[in-house]
Amino acid sequence: MKHPLHTRSLSVGHGPCAVVEGIDLQLLPGELVAMIGVNGSGKSTLLRTLAGLLKPISGTIHCGDRELGELSARERAQHMAVVLTGRPQAGLLDVRTLVGLGRQPWTGVLGTLTPADEQVVEQALERCGIGNFGERALEALSDGERQQVMIARALAQDTPVLLLDEPTAFLDLVNSVKVMRLLQRIARELGRSVLLSTHDLRSALDLADRIVLIHQGKTWSGTPAEAIASGALASAFQSEGLTFDANTGSLR
């Protein structure tokens, strides 16, 4: 599958008002793509539209050879896993049970896990560095550990595409970098297409294969080096009274 997810002339927004227009986006297997932009630029709106949670205003979204709108909810869940922003609330569920929910698109109506499903769950836990967390309650974990669990659940879903909305939003610097490196490994070692929105510009420039910058209702796409050299980053953030320092990859 050349492009597990791609768009053509996509416009997204709420109601009839487009927030971002003319989006031609292609995700490749093994690629970590970071979507950046100022608050309110449309990052979450675009990501939720790609996930099928919002209807596009115009244009198309393709999952492989099929349009997103043609897929049933189950087919969509077999193609892409989604981790939304916010602290997960899962009551009294333990970690292994929660990660096991990622197998629902592949199990029968009763959701019973086969030995093969259980093996996928254990592999996801190990891959995310939480193999010894299985019996722990989600509520007993730190924010960083909870995010690892949510990524493990998405990984257990076994989809070619992972979409994550601000996966480092509630994390300190150490855990933020840890999560970004985990997502980089998932993309490269497992051949998944990983798209995330983030405000962590430094980590995005250091670890992403490609940057999608949203500015003034349009998207720009290129490598981190191209984003710096082209002046696209400096231009996007200058309007917000910020200066992009190309030497440090940070905003001032």
What does the model show?
The chain is of the alpha/beta class and 252 residues long. Helix content is 34%, strand content 24%. It has a single domain, classed as P-loop containing nucleotide triphosphate hydrolases (Rossmann fold). It contains nine helices and 13 strands. α6 (173-190) links the parallel β8 and β9 (193-197). The longest helix has 18 residues, at 173-190. The chain is globular. The relative contact order is 0.17.
Please describe the biggest sheet, giving its number of strands, its sense, and whether it closes into a barrel.
6 strands, mixed
Which homologous superfamily in CATH is the superfamily? Answer: P-loop containing nucleotide triphosphate hydrolases
Q: Give the second-level CATH assignment, the architecture.
A: 3-Layer(aba) Sandwich
Give the strand line-up of the largest sheet. Answer: 7-8-9-4-10-11
How far apart are the first and last residues' alpha carbons, in Å? 41 Å
Order of helices and strands: EEEEHEEHEHHHEHEHEEHHEE
Mean pLDDT: 91
How many domain regions?
1
Strand portion, in percent? 15-25%
Estimate the helix proportion, in percent: 25-40%
